[in-house]
């Protein structure tokens, strides 16, 4: 099958969150299974800096209309690891020093969407599957299906739309439909793309794709309810037969403690105790954390309300008082970043922080820690908890979305099978209670090591999920 992924981020070139990992790992796995995969990405300045000009091939150059402006589009091609990347270049839109956060994000990704459409038409590229991720290119199935010329040319193409984060809904004023997407108001007036009295590219993806997926079975069920659907439950129920949840995996080559060159001492489940000890001491010493006998709790995260920061701080303080150390790696909302800095200043030999993102340090943190804190308010899938498990670090999660699907919580009686800790109610009390329970288990080394070993042996690889995606694609292509 010829499969085109269309997304706003993908490793190894650009990443702000799990989306980038998923687009890349899934594509890599599909290629391994013999599929023909390409990925469309905006050509951000950060990507340009990573690639030598010689490695790039110019695939096309044309003009497209955005509102009254004519915009140039240059498309560059790069083949690596069997994946064909197409980078859509326009310096006005993508030379910003960052990926998101501008007032005209709606216009920037509309441009990306329309450029992908035109590129495919120019190149007579009609893949079997166009797999669109999140709101940024959510309008692509719509623009390729409502236009007569496209409908004919893409008659054999099927669309899959994956929701990684329903909180980002691609809301834009009504006029953008005509201005950016060259569509009449009909699609707004008849409700196809109208949501909260605006245009929603996320809703458009849901309405016009042949199949819709989200990134875990539990989140699939949550999205169908008024409580968990973020307003999308109605339209998702209307598409219920075409909507499913497929749990993400993690990249087993990148995250492999037995061969990880980025950590102080590689280890497997066979020498996990000495291996983790060496990594823990290396990280703690590097950050001036003194109590290496106590447990080390960590977070590697985007710092945002979604990740549970409102219930984390009180529990963390209690843990520190009891003797634990904490390491936090992440960046995001400044109110929380400030609280982390305050905490570190108050307990400099107990709290280590790194505000920013570093893949290298993330590996070290996963390897060094005993516990991984991830009590998200909602979590479509979550990758951190699975990476933690791979490194024998026990996740402490709120049982929501993919966290519920990937962590078997220890309850005192299931040491043979469990690989983490969890609670249900989003409350400071529950967070604290569960963290303290994990600390109790830290003092019972027999159970602790059993759980850590279970975690390391949990299968979170991409294999199973990729087969599910292939099954979904094949059912469409038939
Ligand atoms: C988003 C979700 C996260 C998921 C990731 C990849 O970042 O918030 O839960 O793991 O996408 O699908």
For the record, the CATH class of the largest domain is Alpha Beta
CATH topology of the largest domain: Rossmann fold
The unique ligands bound to this protein are: alpha-D-glucopyranose
Compute the number of structural domains: 2
Uncertain runs with pLDDT below 50, 5 residues or more? none
Number of distinct helices: 20
CATH superfamily of the largest domain: Glycogen Phosphorylase B
Q: Tell me what the CATH architecture of the largest domain is.
A: 3-Layer(aba) Sandwich
**Structural class computed from helices and strand pairing:** alpha/beta
Q: Roughly what fraction of the amino acids lie in strands?
A: 15-25%
Task: Provide a concise account of the structure shown.
The protein contains 20 helices and 18 strands. With 478 residues, it is α/β, with parallel strands linked by helices.
Topology of this protein?
Blueprint: E1 2-6, H1 18-32, E2 36-42, H2 45-50, E3 57-66, E4 69-80, E5 83-89, H3 91-94, H4 105-122, E6 129-133, H5 140-146, H6 148-153, E7 158-163, E8 171-172, H7 176-179, H8 186-189, E9 194-195, E10 198-200, H9 201-208, E11 211-214, H10 217-223, H11 233-238, E12 243-245, H12 272-286, E13 296-303, H13 309-322, E14 325-332, H14 334-346, E15 351-355, H15 359-368, E16 371-374, H16 384-390, E17 394-398, H17 401-406, E18 421-423, H18 428-442, H19 445-457, H20 463-477
Helix pairs in contact: 5-9, 12-15, 13-18
Alpha-D-glucopyranose binds next to α1.
